[in-house]
From TrEMBL, chain A:
The lineage of its organism: Eukaryota, Fungi, Dikarya, Ascomycota, Pezizomycotina. Residues 602-636 form the SAP domain. It is an enzyme of class 3 (hydrolase). This is ATP-dependent DNA helicase II subunit 1. The keyword Repeat does not apply. Belongs to the ku70 family. Keywords: ATP-binding, Chromosome, DNA damage, DNA recombination, DNA repair, DNA-binding, Helicase, Hydrolase, Nucleotide-binding, Nucleus, Telomere. GO terms for cellular component: chromosome, telomeric region; Ku70:Ku80 complex. Gene3D superfamilies: 1.10.1600.10, 2.40.290.10, Ku70, bridge and pillars (4.10.970.10), SAP domain (1.10.720.30), von Willebrand factor, type A domain (3.40.50.410).
From TrEMBL, chain B:
It is an enzyme of class 3 (hydrolase). GO terms for molecular function: ATP binding; damaged DNA binding; DNA helicase activity; double-stranded DNA binding; hydrolase activity; telomeric DNA binding. Belongs to the ku80 family. This is ATP-dependent DNA helicase II subunit 2. Residues 312-451 form the Ku domain. It holds the Pfam family Ku. It is found in: Chromosome, Telomere; Nucleus. Gene3D superfamilies: 1.10.1600.10, 2.40.290.10, Ku, C-terminal domain, von Willebrand factor, type A domain. Keywords: ATP-binding, Chromosome, DNA damage, DNA recombination, DNA repair, DNA-binding, Helicase, Hydrolase, Nucleotide-binding, Nucleus, Telomere. Its EC number is 3.6.4.12.
Length: 640, 722
């Protein structure tokens, strides 16, 4: 496949950490938007008095969409490229560099943003275009009298990809247009477009069509685009890949419709592993591909900048391994060493790799359990999604489907031994089915490898059973729970952008574009306090009063019990001189602690006793006695 | 745990310990030391100064102990091999030399226990310690068996709070199910004496060595003290603004936390010690690590500079500022700018809303789990949290909450799951982190239960869909492979097979076992992983046996066929690619068939020329043209600008020629390209192209592994890459 050398390269980088996302990212993605600028694309939508009605022309909506996706990609795919090509414009523009074909080579093609990792200026320029209706835009967005030749558009895209993203694993051309028949019955023009489309296919560029339909007119792909679009024979068998037309209406603006269509194809489908053997039973193996639909995005790390040049420039770092005397060390000279009893215990490279071997890569079913046997606390890291592939084993899909259906139907899960790739650490995983997507389930249907914790990963937390709620308190709380359901009754991640991440990029963007720093972050994770109060406030107030009464009663009966106990035990206890500080210290309660601090008797405790108290509060017990005292006092101050 | 420990090992090294018994191939001493070394090396590995160890030998040729020095009788042939101290690798090496079978049979084990308890008493004084004595022996030498002295010793141990562990070689142990046949009478008597002593102690264990050694392979899990991550309010509503908001004082601990394998570091032989040859098979000395030093990372920084040779030049680290990247723009940040970029947050744990169980799938979990309980001894909070937990449980609902661990920390969203304390003695909430909008990638996949055709029809019968037979076979198989009652508890009742508390992280324990083994026996090769670590890598044999017929039926119904390795990814010439409409592009090209290849559109034209080539000379000509283009791209490249493009052309050439089974053409071209690049014939220093893009990009010679008709062996390629 056309994934390039990057995929192969990964085995060389034998890092100590589990191979995970880092190498998975090496498959870079380049997307070129090709937006049709025609009279109909520039036609304003019919006037409407509705508040949420469309005000954008199709071109404007497409540009806004590209703007939004550009910002999104800077956060989510910082190494990936994007470009914007307008076609059907009166003016033509390619690159100004010498040596490349001059603009006359592609008449009525206007390369608005060259294909590259977006820079701050690209974002700024696009922003001005979509927000300010500036003169620039007026000049550019003039449709030509004669339409652009699609063969030219496609070849122009070809050149953009060939020069700028030569070895990218994923290259895609997004065509946004409302014209299903750009060349009518002009056979020659259609043929040369088809030939250029084949070139793109051979180059490894995938064409995705985002048609815009309006006024109930259907976008008929068979008129022209069926000659242009190819399906990768290696893509999932049975893939529907239907082309969805974007349109305005049903309370949805054209922009939203377009964004949702493009977003669904925006992230290139990168496999975490391909054609892994999945051994269902001895003698029955199928092949599966693995994906990571979930991945925690974090802000990019800081980088080093060189400021002495004309413009700020990223300093690229190269690392080399050296020994004490600053001599460069070859990998073959090194050994893996482990600190043990203050010294190094070492293994030579062959032994070190031998130690990591736990059988080859693969996924093997050990057996099945009812789903209910998965403890609710059994989670350590995100799951991997698997989907069948017919590449190595013909029939994989139907067997996979049968397993999926069985697990769903009988609420079962598989238990499997999983090694994602050579040298990866083995995991025990629960194999869980996801249902067909519906209103509340947005993830694709398939199987998930849910990593189970090992015994080593489980902390034992000793809790004692405190008093339990009474039925009327519980019933009261039930009402609250019922009243405060999330919209549509499910957790929809799309509604909750990561506030820290958004803020980070908001600031970096503002500094890069020399904009004002925004004052208040947008944070969708903050609960809707006012609504909550309106809905349950009064009720909750009543409930709290009842709670206070119950708690008081409880305290009373406890005190009574303590008194009785104390009476019983009195003879065995020490004389009065032993005050609160001398009670078995681990069980010293907060009130006693407070008294001890006030009376300054805490320091009479031994180190061992102090440690016991600290440990019971979950505070670290390291340090000298003075440190321990300080820690404890601080804790009491903050918590009692 | 962080408690202090004082442990004394009493090791019988009498001459009979050198013998092998009961069919074992190793001496009693070696057998016993497997246990002792494992114990000691575990202590060394922990690296705690407060875990102290002493060692006493009985049956030693010499005598060295205070009671003997004081002239007391009965303490002969007992030597303190190591006083109680924090143990290091150096002491391990020393001990390894000292613990050798003697040529004496003597040394009273009971006296040794007295010596050991004296050592412990002296060392630990009245401080808080965990005190233990281990005695390993084959009990071949008479011991002081008077009831009186046993009582004395036991009383002393009890007074001092010392735990006594007696592990004997081939001791009878009905619990474990071992009985030595033809046991010498003296040994039987000694066993009875030791057992008598153990029974008199408050805290003592008596066992047989075989069991102890067997249990060594069971991984020991490092226990971690629960860490309190949060201590504060869990709120419903904004308690600062609305008086009716609810605040529950809670504490949050980690429930799961991924344990990491010991982290190794890269070391290298010290250069002044000469080459590696000096430090190979000699024992002991290099264990000191003297010949090794840590490998350090050195970073060099470069920036683009059109005037510099190669287009890049080095810059000093001190000349660099810190910054962030926004796309390809770098944004310098001054020290004072940094705080702005961090979202200001306040410590908080607050409920956002509730969702039904059914709407949530566990594979949405993003990571480790926490446990939330009410503050201890806080009646109001305990009651309130209990009410919330029960209400959630009864309504089958989860809560979604916003969590900020401390002021300034990043907000997270948690799913709170109720544990109503039915199986556990306590009620609590478990929390799992949820994904944010940015964390979800929308990938589309076709449905698994139907096939959509290009024309929009829905098929329910298709080769990609299971037949009724296959569905039935799968269902029977899954039911037959049930693990839920395959395990057994202590009473032999059926329980779940492979529960979490029996599954150990194979990498961690394999590494730990290997490190400990290497520390004690530096010259021995690393052994295979312990069986217990791979126990769950395969289905249990018994289950497979029972499910034989279901497996057979499933394989038959599945009709899965392996694709022969050769056929993979290959297209025959006849099988041309067509667009959705099925239009024949080759026919369109017709007479204008491409035979010349342009630099601009090289890859498509090259592929098309090969696809329609009818003879070898056309192929050769296409390869020749492509080769010229590649060289030209490199030659004309300003710095590395066109390297990626040249490499891509080369990659396509390589792939196509493997498919056409003409690897020799590629290998010939690459050899000539190598000499052009390395001789500097392509306008300057193009070595980066060679090493980074061609060798690093795996575009080297095509080997016989990749193409049968290639005569190039993998070794040749290694040499070629240099």
């Amino acid at each position: 496949m056309a994934w390039g050398g990057d995929e192969e390269r990964r085995s060389e980088e034998e890092q100590d950490e589990e191979l995970d996302e880092t190498d998975y990212k090496t498959q870079k993605d380049a997307v070129l938007f090709a937006i049709d600028v025609s009279n109909s694309m520039l036609e304003p939508p019919p006037a409407s008095s509705e508040k949420r009605a469309d005000r954008d022309t199709a071109v404007k909506a497409a540009l806004k969409c590209a703007y939004q996706i550009m910002q999104q990609r800077i956060i989510a795919q910082p190494k990936d490229m994007m470009g914007i090509l307008l076609f059907g414009t009166e003016r033509s523009k390619f690159r100004d560099e010498p040596g490349s074909r001059s603009s006359t080579g592609y008449p009525h093609c206007y390369l608005l943003t060259d294909l590259d990792v977006p820079a701050a200026e690209d974002v700024k320029k696009l922003k001005e275009l979509v927000e300010e209706d500036g003169e620039d835009l007026e000049e550019i967005l003039v449709p030509s009298t004669e339409p652009a030749l699609m063969s030219n558009v496609l070849f122009c895209a070809n050149q953009v990809f060939t020069t700028n993203a030569a070895n990218f694993g994923s290259r895609r051309l997004f065509i946004i247009t409302d014209d299903d028949s750009p060349h009518g019955s002009d056979k020659t023009a259609k043929s040369s477009a088809a030939v250029r489309a084949k070139d793109l296919y051979d180059l490894g560029v995938v064409i995705e069509l985002f048609p815009i339909s309006r006024g109930g007119k259907k976008f008929d792909v068979s008129k022209f685009y069926d000659d242009i679009i190819y399906r990768d024979p290696a893509s999932e068998a049975g893939a529907s890949d239907e082309v969805k037309a974007s349109k305005s209406g049903d309370g949805l603006t054209l922009l939203n419709s377009l964004i949702s269509n493009i977003n669904s194809k925006q992230t290139p489908k990168r496999a975490y592993f391909s054609n892994l053997g999945f051994e269902l039973a001895p003698g029955l193996t199928i092949s599966v591909n693995g994906y990571m639909p979930l991945h925690r995005q974090t802000p990019a790390r800081t980088c080093y900048v060189w400021l002495d040049g004309e413009t700020a420039q990223l300093a690229q770092s190269e690392t080399s391994k050296i020994d004490e005397s600053a001599r460069t060390v070859e990998k073959s000279e090194t050994r893996k060493a482990y600190k043990f009893g203050g010294e190094y215990i070492y293994f030579n490279p062959e032994e070190a790799s031998e130690l990591k071997k736990m059988g080859g890569k693969g996924l093997r079913i050990i057996g099945f359990k009812p789903r209910s046997m998965l403890p609710m606390w059994a989670s350590v890291k995100k799951s991997t999604f698997i989907f069948p592939s017919e590449q190595d084993y013909v029939g994989s899909t139907r067997v996979f489907s049968a397993l999926w259906q069985k697990l769903l139907k009988d609420k079962k899960m598989g238990l499997a031994w999983f090694i994602a790739r050579e040298n990866a650490n083995p995991l025990l995983v629960a194999v869980l089915p996801s249902q067909n997507p519906d209103d509340t389930h947005f993830l694709p249907a398939g199987l998930w490898l849910f990593p189970l914790p090992f015994a080593d990963d489980v902390r034992s937390v000793d809790l004692d059973g405190g008093p339990r709620s009474s039925d009327d308190l519980t019933d009261g709380m039930r009402e609250v729970v019922k009243l405060l359901q999330l919209p549509k009754g499910f957790y929809n991640p799309a509604k909750y952008p990561n506030p820290s991440l958004q803020w980070h990029y908001r600031i970096v963007q503002a500094m890069a574009l020399e904009e004002d720093i925004p004052e208040h972050p947008e944070d969708a994770t903050i609960p809707k306090y006012r609504q909550m109060d309106k809905r349950v406030g009064e009720y909750l107030g009543g409930w709290k009063a009842e709670l206070a009464v119950k708690a008081k009663g409880l305290m009373h009966s406890k005190a009574l019990k303590r008194e009785l106990d104390a009476d019983d035990e009195r003879p065995a206890k020490r004389p009065k001189a032993a005050t609160a500080t001398k009670t078995p210290s681990g069980s010293m309660n907060n009130a006693q602690l407070k008294i001890a601090i006030e009376q300054d008797t805490l320091k009479k405790l031994t180190v061992a006793e102090l440690k016991e108290i600290l440990a019971s509060k979950g505070i670290s017990t390291t340090g000298k006695k003075a440190d321990l005292l300080e820690k404890l006092e601080q804790w009491v101050e903050e918590n009692v | 745990m962080a408690d202090k420990e004082a442990t004394v090992y009493i090791i019988d090294v009498g001459e009979t310990m050198a013998d092998c018994h009961n069919g074992r191939m190793e001496s009693d001493l070696d057998f016993s030391m497997r246990y002792v070394w494992d114990k000691i090396s575990t202590t060394v590995a922990a690296g705690r100064k407060t875990w102290t160890v002493g060692v006493i030998g009985t049956g030693t040729d010499e005598t060295n102990n205070p009671p003997h020095d004081e002239g007391l009788a009965g303490y002969g042939n007992i030597s303190i091999l190591q006083e109680i101290t924090a143990i290091s690798m150096a002491s391990v090496r020393e001990l390894r030399n000292k613990i050798r079978p003697s040529s004496t049979s003597g040394g009273d084990a009971i006296s040794a226990i007295v010596v050991a308890s004296n050592m412990i008493e002296l060392f630990t004084k009245k401080l808080k310690y965990k005190r233990r004595i281990f005695l390993v022996t084959n009990a071949d030498f008479p011991v002081d068996d008077s009831e009186e002295s046993l009582d004395d010793v036991a009383t002393r141990l009890n007074e001092l709070g010392i735990e006594l562990v007696v592990i004997g070689v081939d001791f009878d142990d009905p619990d474990y199910g071992y009985k030595e046949e033809d046991k010498p009478q003296i040994k039987a008597h000694n066993e009875a004496t030791l057992q008598n002593l153990v029974s008199k102690c408050n805290n003592a264990v008596y066992g047989t060595m075989a069991q102890a050694v067997e249990e060594l392979s069971i991984p020991r899990i490092k226990s971690v003290r629960p860490f309190k991550a949060y201590d504060g309010d869990l709120t419903l509503g904004d308690a600062e603004k609305y008086e009716n908001a609810l605040s529950i004082h809670v504490e949050r601990y980690f429930k799961t936390k991924r344990a990491a394998p010991p982290s190794g570091s890269m070391v290298v032989n010290r250069s002044e010690f000469g080459g590696p040859s000096q430090l190979t098979q000699d024992d002991d000395v290099e264990m000191g690590g003297t010949g090794l030093s840590a490998v350090q990372q050195m970073r060099n920084y470069k920036v683009n500079d059109p005037d510099a040779p190669g287009g890049k030049r080095d810059v000093e680290f001190s000349d660099l500022a810190k910054g962030y990247q926004y796309g390809r723009t770098v944004v310098p940040f001054s020290e004072s700018d940094f705080p702005i970029i961090k979202l200001e947050t306040k410590k908080q744990f607050t409920i956002v809303g509730f969702v039904p169980f059914s709407s949530y799938d566990p594979f949405l979990n993003m990571g480790e789990v926490g446990i939330v309980a009410a503050q201890r001894q806080n009646d109001e909070s305990e009651l309130a949290l209990s009410a919330l937990i029960r209400a959630l449980h009864e309504l089958e609902s989860f809560a979604v909450a916003r969590y900020v661990q401390k002021d300034g920390a990043q907000p997270q969203l948690f799913l709170l799951k109720p544990n109503p304390g039915i199986e556990d003695p306590f009620e609590c909430l478990y929390d799992v982190p949820l994904p944010f909008a940015e964390d979800v990638r929308t990938y589309q996949f076709p449905p698994l239960d139907k096939v959509l055709t290009l024309t929009g029809h829905i098929l329910t019968e298709h080769r990609l869909l299971p037949t009724a037979d296959l569905n039935k076979a799968m269902s029977d198989y899954v039911d037959a492979m049930d693990l839920s009652k395959l395990g057994a508890d202590d009473e032999g009742n059926p329980t779940e097979y492979a529960p979490i508390d029996e599954s150990y992280n194979p990498i961690i324990h394999r590494l730990n076992q290997a490190i400990r083994a290497r520390a004690v026996h530096p010259d021995e090769p690393i052994g295979p992983p312990a069986g217990i670590l791979l126990r769950f890598s395969k289905p249990p044999e018994k289950l497979l046996d029972d499910a034989k017929s279901e497996i057979r039926a499933l394989i038959d119904a599945a009709e899965v066929k392996k694709v022969p390795a050769k056929a993979k990814g290959k297209r025959s010439k006849k099988d041309t690619v067509k667009p959705l409409s099925g239009l024949d592009i080759d026919a369109l090209l017709g007479q204008g068939r491409r035979t010349t290849i342009s630099k601009e559109n090289a890859i498509p034209e090259f592929k098309q020329a090969l696809a329609t080539a009818s003879d070898d000379s056309t192929i050769e000509s296409a390869v020749k043209q492509m080769g010229e283009i590649i060289k030209k791209l490199i030659q004309e490249s300003f710095a590395d600008l066109q390297y990626a493009r040249a490499a891509e052309n080369l990659r396509v050439m390589r792939e196509e020629l493997i498919n056409l089974e003409m690897p020799a053409l590629y290998n010939k071209f690459l050899t000539s390209l190598k000499s052009s690049i390395l001789s500097g014939a392509l306008d300057g220093d193009r070595r980066e192209m060679w090493f980074k893009h061609i060798i690093g990009g795996r575009l080297s010679l095509i080997t016989s592994d990749e193409s049968d008709v290639s005569g190039v062996m993998a070794e040749v390629v290694t040499e070629f890459a240099k």
